[in-house]
Amino acid sequence: MKWVHCAFDDMTPRQVHDLLRLRQQIFIIEQECIFPDIDGLDPVCNHVFGLLDDRVVAAARIVAPGLDPDHCEQGEYPAIGRVVASPELRGQGVGRKLMLQAIASCDDSFAGKGIFLNAQLYLKSFYASLGFAPFGEAFYEDGIAHISMLRAA
Predict the structure, then answer these.
(1) What per-residue confidence (pLDDT) applies to 137?
(2) What CATH architecture does domain 2-111 belong to?
């Protein structure tokens, strides 16, 4: 798998298509969650994605500190969001590799800062194994249980 770290405007039209299609397939169709995935943040975020045969099969976006008005609890921290991997790759460690790439991207761009994320509650242990600690109470976002988590700098 080839890993790419880039700004949205540096993605090819095909990569944007594949990214949005993958997120639609997982978040909207598979998880049956109707929400505005195209929320206006992608163009101002950095993105990390994995390519197989020039096709986006895993992705996450990096939101700069304070950029997302809907998640102001992230405050001074960059946030990793929209973490997704193709169903065909499940059980092969791609999610962990993707998160390690996203963490490295945050560390490169926002050295010395912790990293925030809102994890789907069933993935709390997975994110904890990557150094994220839960805080606050579980909550529902778009009909799915989540927990806020922070990884220390």
Answers:
(1) 94
(2) 3-Layer(aba) Sandwich (3.40)
